[in-house]
Amino acid sequence: MGSPSPELSNLWLARAFNAQDMDAAAALYHPEASIVQLDEVHGGTSIARGADGIRATMAAYIGLKPHMDVVTHHTTIAGDFAMTRSQWLITGKDKDGKLIEVHHHGMEVPTD
Question: What does pTM read for this prediction?
Fold first, then answer.
């Protein structure tokens, strides 16, 4: 489904995470998208591809019962393409109940 504009894509992802809504988070990604799975959340760094990979990635984040803060630093739009640069912080609890903090810089290519 995507967000209403590329500038809002990161905010909408944060809203989905904060609401613990995996379906809403996954819906922000194209069914053929790729996403980096981070070591702190997934136990290794790898690339998840396609709808199933996106859902698995989002499920791992939602499993943290997260709170996400995000800042979009820049959005570039060229024709039908857009790219955003973001910085985000996710706090939550791992599977053992230990507090976890994941800080990352992202680059996203939002789609409609």
Answer: 0.88
